[in-house]
Amino acid sequence: MKLQQIIDKAKDKNHFDDLTAYIKFCDEFLNYISDNLQATIISQNENHYQFFQYTKKEGNFQITRPINSNLMYKAEEFSDASKEFLKILKSVRTINKKDKTVRNILNNVTYTIQQSVGAALDGLPSGQSNTARKLNGDLFEHFIRLIIREMGIDCRSGVIKVPVVVDGNTEFYMSYQHDLIIEKGEEVKVIGSVKTSSKDRIDKVFIDKFLYTAYRKIHAPHCHFSQ
């Protein structure tokens, strides 16, 4: 498979309907980079961080985001680990939470899949970097929701309407977009942000807390919200 074919897949959200599709994409990407890179650049200060450089012919010498080699599986490792990953998710309520092997598989497979998508999109021309970031963020949000659903917990993204109260009166409702919403019946139990970088996430945590604390006091004292 050529790099452009991999990039085209990453650009099309229809290729990522379920976890199996994410795993298949990651497997294709890892097999591609195993012997088709121009170079692997090692960080001088933190040697476990690496950058993949694509060839001139296929990727115009584009360099990817930093990759943590302590977390990123190679192709042969990923093939076995991804199978265990799906098994663990289906039995997550009964497995030993202290088992380091289980924790490593969950962390490393999740990291490897997400970074494969991001690194593939890094192969887009520099003029399309904003498109790459948006696509990567959207696919990551979808990926995390699929993981949660695989564990047997229904979740969604969507809009929650938050009342704006002035002098005790609700003047209007503000539509508030969330990446992750978990409900029980009609009651919202969990809201969350799913972002690929802390700069996109840190301020929203405090805004969420402020808005929903106010919402509970005025309109829904029986509801429980968690960030």
How does the major sheet shape up? 3 strands, antiparallel
Give the strand line-up of the largest sheet: 1-2-3
Class based on secondary structure composition and strand pairing = alpha+beta
What's the number of extended β-strand segments?
6
State the distance separating the first and last CA atoms: 41 Å
- Supply the number of helical segments: 7
SSE blueprint and pairings:
Layout: H1 3-11, H2 19-36, E1 39-42, E2 49-53, H3 56-59, E3 67-68, H4 75-90, H5 100-121, H6 129-150, E4 156-166, E5 169-184, E6 187-192, H7 202-218
Antiparallel strand pairs: 1-2, 2-3, 4-5, 5-6
Give an account of the 3D structure.
The chain is α+β, with helices and mostly antiparallel strands and 227 residues long. It has 2 domains: 3-150, no CATH class; 156-218, no CATH class. 48% of the residues lie in helices and 19% in strands. The protein contains 7 helices and 6 strands; from the N terminus they run H-H-E-E-H-E-H-H-H-E-E-E-H. The protein has helices at 3-11, 19-36, 56-59, 75-90, 100-121, 129-150, 202-218, and strands at residues 39-42, 49-53, 67-68, 156-166, 169-184, 187-192. It has a 3-stranded antiparallel beta sheet, with no helix packed on it. Strands 4-5-6 form a 3-stranded antiparallel beta sheet, with helices on one face. Strand 1 (39-42) and strand 2 (49-53) form a beta hairpin. The termini are far apart. The model is unreliable at 221-227 (pLDDT under 50).
